[in-house]
Design brief:
single chain; Immunoglobulin-like; 13% helix; 4 helices; mainly beta; flat; Trypsin Inhibitor V, Chain A; five-stranded antiparallel beta sheet
Length: 319
């Protein structure tokens, strides 16, 4: 369930009675919530109440979807500032059928439902085209709970019998093993008043008995599993020796205009950065597309006061 942050304020609350206590908003609609707060705080217009609807849902099966399920301050606590609420979304849902969907599309849908997308393997499959989801565990239609892990299997298409790629030196190469990816380090390489550029250093292991190249990167950048940027293309070309390891950088420009307040808060502390997408393996004349998903935690901006100041300004829109 996708919610838009709603922040309507007519200035600060000013001096409030010290014994003004928070009512129970649980189970109320937003309209009823505003009306009750307007009456309590003596506001003539309900829409002017200092109410914030937080963007993340509260998952529960005991309160109907779209009604208030969480509040701050808590019941009978003193109201001294804004009132924050989270709306209910079903805790138990039916797993949608993502078979046949492209890897990135399926991942976006599953994670938008509060589930964890976990790619486990790639298999040859006659029914589903290469690069699409061929199977999920649990199966489509199963009842699952938010934060459950959904294991996915991606189709390699059909190769019957498997035909090896023959390189220019006559070596037969089966491109079915998976190169190992890691984010080994990351850094801020430039910044100005409009944004900054990040450099992610990738470590890639070559499982083949022949040199390989990793190239044609297309990916998205996530922060704490929330998408920050999508459709990022990199011209990085990483040469990896036989059974060896090599390093290469992908550059990611980030504009302040593209950062939502909720993600700005993530960026101000140690956060998990995740690069998810596709790349191409080239072994001499052999070529094969692959998916990759790498992540690591960093604190980029602790020592960069200029970026931190801009992010704090963006994050303040949540308050």
């Amino acid at each position: 369930m996708s919610l838009v942050i709603l922040l309507v304020m007519s200035g600060s609350l000013g001096a409030l009675p010290s014994d003004l206590l928070m009512p129970d908003l649980t189970g109320l609609s937003l309209d009823s919530t505003r009306a009750q707060l307007a009456s309590l705080l003596d506001y003539t217009e309900p829409d002017s109440c200092p109410l914030i609807v937080l963007p993340d849902s509260f998952y529960t099966d005991s309160i109907p979807e779209g009604l208030v399920a969480w509040q701050e301050p808590l019941l009978d606590s003193v109201i001294s500032d804004t009132v924050k609420v989270r709306l209910a979304a079903p805790l138990t849902i039916e797993l949608p059928d993502v078979r046949g969907m492209q890897f990135m599309e399926a991942m976006a849908l599953i994670e938008s439902l509060g589930l964890e997308f976990y790619p486990v393997m790639q298999i040859e499959n006659e029914e589903y085209p290469v690069g699409t989801i061929a199977k999920t565990v649990p199966e489509p239609g199963s009842l699952v709970k938010r934060k459950d892990v959904i294991a996915t299997v991606t189709s390699l298409g059909v190769s019957s019998p498997p035909t090896p790629t023959k390189t220019s030196t006559g070596v037969e190469v089966h491109l079915y093993e998976h190169p190992e990816f890691k984010i080994s380090s990351a850094s801020v390489v430039s910044e100005d008043s409009t944004g900054f550029e990040l450099a992610f250093k990738l470590q890639i292991r070559n499982p083949y008995k022949h040199p390989m190249t990793a190239e044609k990167f297309k990916f998205e950048l996530q922060v704490n599993r929330a998408r920050l940027l999508k459709d990022i293309f990199s011209d990085a070309s990483i040469e990896i020796p036989v059974k060896g390891v090599a390093y290469g950088k992908v550059m990611v420009p980030v504009s302040y205009a593209d950062i939502p307040p909720s993600i700005a808060e993530f960026l101000l502390s140690e956060a998990e950065y995740r690069l998810v997408g596709t790349f191409a393996i080239t072994v001499e004349s052999g070529f094969s597309p692959r998916a990759f998903d790498v992540k690591r935690k960093f604190d980029f901006f602790a020592s960069n006061p200029a970026i931190r100041k801009n992010l704090e300004g963006i994050a303040s829109n949540l308050q």
